[in-house]
Structure formats: structure tokens, C-alpha cells
Amino acid sequence: MNKLLLSLIVSIFLSGELYAQNAYDITEEEALKVLLSAKTKAEEMDVLVNIAVTDAGANLKAFIRMDASYLGSIDVAIKKAKTARYFNIDTGKLGEMTQPGGIIYNIELSNGGLITFPGGLPIKNKDNVIIGAIGISGGTIEQDRAIAIAAAQSILEL
Amino acid sequence: MNKLLLSLIVSIFLSGELYAQNAYDITEEEALKVLLSAKTKAEEMDVLVNIAVTDAGANLKAFIRMDASYLGSIDVAIKKAKTARYFNIDTGKLGEMTQPGGIIYNIELSNGGLITFPGGLPIKNKDNVIIGAIGISGGTIEQDRAIAIAAAQSILEL
Amino acid sequence: MNKLLLSLIVSIFLSGELYAQNAYDITEEEALKVLLSAKTKAEEMDVLVNIAVTDAGANLKAFIRMDASYLGSIDVAIKKAKTARYFNIDTGKLGEMTQPGGIIYNIELSNGGLITFPGGLPIKNKDNVIIGAIGISGGTIEQDRAIAIAAAQSILEL
Amino acid sequence: MNKLLLSLIVSIFLSGELYAQNAYDITEEEALKVLLSAKTKAEEMDVLVNIAVTDAGANLKAFIRMDASYLGSIDVAIKKAKTARYFNIDTGKLGEMTQPGGIIYNIELSNGGLITFPGGLPIKNKDNVIIGAIGISGGTIEQDRAIAIAAAQSILEL
């Protein structure tokens, strides 16, 4: 069984390009930078948050939960990041359109559950291309959004 | 095969500390006390309810359903307790912020479904540390909340 | 709103039979007896378990988790009890038929996930009628089953 | 509305102990140490993996995905970590008991899906108490397990 897996892996490595990172996808280094920048910002603001980073494919790339932050914010932070990338939008802006009577009322029910209040933002590279997204949960919506903005911008320093 | 499991279990017991209960986690004795206090309170008030207790990790610790109480309240009671621990809050207070136009509108769609009307409360120990949560469902929201308050406070008598 | 609910409740009470417990359904008193008997038996055997009781409708009736027992056993204990009532069978006996090549291979995939190894048993009243089920998880399969047997029989003492 | 949340948060902070981290729960600092140790080990071994850390309550604490590692390994790594904590066990050891004919065949169907091959391990502190778990996915099962071992032990250096 292991031989099968091994030969599979060898052939994959030999094929070279297969593992190539999408050119416009956030890297592990960038994701860690965003994560730690958000953590630093949250500590400066004295807020306890959960921090989630997704890649260009809206898949989880990095995550950290500060001690004693809300357990319920694990899922909220991840859903904020996914929502921001699903629709390339500030989650708070999306929420303005999902209220009763809004043009996309209850879109929260799609994609396994969206979060449409502030704290989720697309992450853009120096060329203004969206390469992923960040979601923050645990503080007030204003605090969450401020941390997300600072963290998303931090990769421009790399 | 059974010998394997047996030796595994023996080795776990010999390792001593492995099974240690978290210092700030509700105990079985406390959970039973909360459960029976809620039951007594509900009987005094002549209300039929479901009673759920979760631990500090928001995992189910104890549960009882009174005869002829709503079947649909099984899940509501459990979700109320989980919600109260997820965000360390009275579920009714959370609900004030999740209404249309509210700052965290539709957060109910996270964490596999939240319940954000009264009846869920964090459980605190004598040092005011949250060690779990309780959720009551089956009566009016005022009744559910009154039962939750009485039950959560009952562990201070232990 | 509360008046509506109140009048609803009053009308339900006046209708009498509506809240009547199924004649062959486990009562809250019986469920608590089963729960505490299982707990006592587990303590005598020095095993840490999760204990779940379902009613005749396979709905959760009572639950308790002993301190430091497996977190993963919450769901396993509940699924054992549900499985035992779904098919009115000792879960271990069901497992003999679900192995590869067995007549009901992989039935575990139904009903949101079954558990088909020992520890789940129907609960019968004095007239030999099934009124619910019990599920035990946390010890060896032999220990879990022994606790389930002792607990299921305890209601005959009431 | 924001004032409500603000006053709520202020009152929570004033209550002091409320945000206390459980004494036997992995800290953010420890989780980051485990994450980065796993990353370093994987780079040394030239393997691309997903790394997940859960806390004592089996809730996600930290996560990182190396560039070009399998997308499918996000969920596998998280489930390995959860499984290791759910049953306080090396996931590979659990898998020996879940095979056809095994004593706990098909337990994988519980808890929303378990992963029972190597790569998940409990994380213990210096006193041998389990404080969380790690899950690695992306390499061979031997590689995943070797990375998990190295990372779990790294917190003893703190």
C-alpha cells in the first residue's frame, strides 16, 4: 500500500508543474505575515480575536485563536474570510444588501452559511489583485474591521 | 484485538495525569446539580422543558427531557447552551444584536446554527469564571430564562 | 406575542390528551434511574464513560458525561442508543451483519451515522415492551456493554 | 446599538476572571510553537503538508497550509487533530481497531467524520496532561506521523 502511495508521489514530483502555486494566490509566508500582523494589532487594541486567512480559492490557509477569545468566533472568522473572497467584498458592505427588503436578502443561507457583518476583507497584492481574504471575529464589528484592514495591508511590506 | 485495547487502557491509567479534568471546567457533579435544579424549578413553575448543560469547551455534558415536553426543544436547548458558551453571553442579549439592521445580523447561520432568544446562559463558578453553559427550551422565553438563571446559580450552593 | 403563546399553551392544556406521554415510552424518572445506574456501575468498574438514553421515538431523553471521559464518546454514546432503538437490537449484534460481505454491509451510513459495535441496547419495561434505548461509550466494548445491561435492567426495580 | 455591545464588553472586562484560559488548555504561544515546529520539520523532510492544532476542547486553535500542499488535506489535518483529542490517542493506533472485523469498526462515522490513519496525536504538557492535539496531512502516513511527533514534543522546549 505504501509503495503505491510512494510511486504516486514520486510521479507527481517528477511531473513538476503539478504542484505549482497559482501565480496570484497568497503564499504561506504572506498568510503568516497577515496572521501575525492581525495578532499584533489586536494586542495593541487589547481585543481578543480569532484570525482566519483563506487563499484565492476561498480555502483555509492559516488560522489562530487568541487565548480566551470566543469559541463561537472560530467559525465566524473563517466564514467572514470565505464570504469576503466568495464575493470579493468587505463583508460589512455585503450585509447592507442582505437585510429584509434588500436586493440579495438572505444570501447568508448559501455556501454553507455566510457572515455579512464587518470583519471580512479581500487581501490584495501590490498589483491590486485579490490573492485571498481575511476574517476577524471577537471584538466589536469596528474593532474586527480595523484589525482586518491593518492585517490585509501588512503584506505590502513584504 | 481486545487485548490491544485493554493494554492501551491499562497504559493510559498508569500514566496518571492523562485523565485530569480541566481546572476551570464544569464537573459531572456540578452538571447534575444544575440539571436537577432546573428540573425542580420547572416543576415548581409547572412548565415542561428540555435542559442541556455544556462544558467549558461547548461540548454536551448533561441533558434531560421532561415527559411530554416539545421534541423540537431537544435541539433548541442544546443550541442555546452552546450559543451561550460560544459567545459567553445570555442568548437573549445576543438576539438583540442579530435582528434585521442589527450589528451582527444573521450570525445564527454560524457554528451549525445558533439560537439567539432567551433561555441560554453561561455557568460561572464562585470565582466568576465561566465553566460551562445551560440551555432551557419548552416554556415561554421568560420561563426558560428564569429556569436557566435559577439552575446556573445552584452550583454556588455546592 | 406572549399572549399568543400563552393562549396556545392554555388551549393545549385544556385539550388534555395532547400532552399525554406515549403509554410505552420511557419516563423522565426511568431515564434518570437508568442514567444514575449506569454511572454507579461505571464507577464500580472504574471506567469513565458517556451515557445516553433515548425514548421510544429514538430522540435524546437523558445524557451525562463523566469527568475526563472521551470527548469523542459524546456522539458515539448517543449514536449507540439511537442505533439500538432504530433497529431494536444490541448494537454489537448489528455489527456482525455490517462487515464487508455482510448482509447489511455499511448500513452505518444511514440515519446520519450508526454505531454498530457493543454498548447500545434497547430498554424494555416489565411487560417486555421496548420503551427506549441506552448507549454507553468510553470503556472497552465489553465494559460498555456490561454497563448498558446493568443500567437497562435497573428500571425493573422502580 | 453599538453602545450596547460596547457596554457589554466593558462590563465583561471589568468582571476580570471571565476571560481566564483553562489551566490545562494549550495556549496561543504553545499552538504557534507547535505550528512552526511542524512547518520546519516538514521543510527539512521536503514534504508539503497542512498543519492543524486543536485545544483541549477539540476546537481549532491554529492552522497553516504550506504552498502547493493538497487542498483535500485541510479537512484531513483538522479531522486528525480532532480525532486524536476525541479519543486521546495516536490516530494510527485507533485505525488498527476500526478495520473490518475490528472491535470498533466504522467508528469513523461518528463525530461528523473521523480520520483513523497516522498523523494525529494528542499534545501533552510537561506534567503529561493532554492540552490539545495536532493533525498533519499531505505526506505519506509515516511522514505525517513523524512531523506530528516532532511538533507535539516541541512545546516542552518552551
TrEMBL record, chains A, B, C, D:
InterPro entries to which the protein is assigned, alphabetical: GlcG_carb_metab_protein, PduO/GlcC-like, PduO/GlcC-like_sf
Gene3D superfamilies: Haem-degrading domain (3.30.450.150)
Secretion signal span: 1-20
Keywords, comma-separated and alphabetical: Signal
Keyword Signal: yes
Pfam families attached to this UniProt entry: HbpS-like
Name of the protein: Heme-binding protein
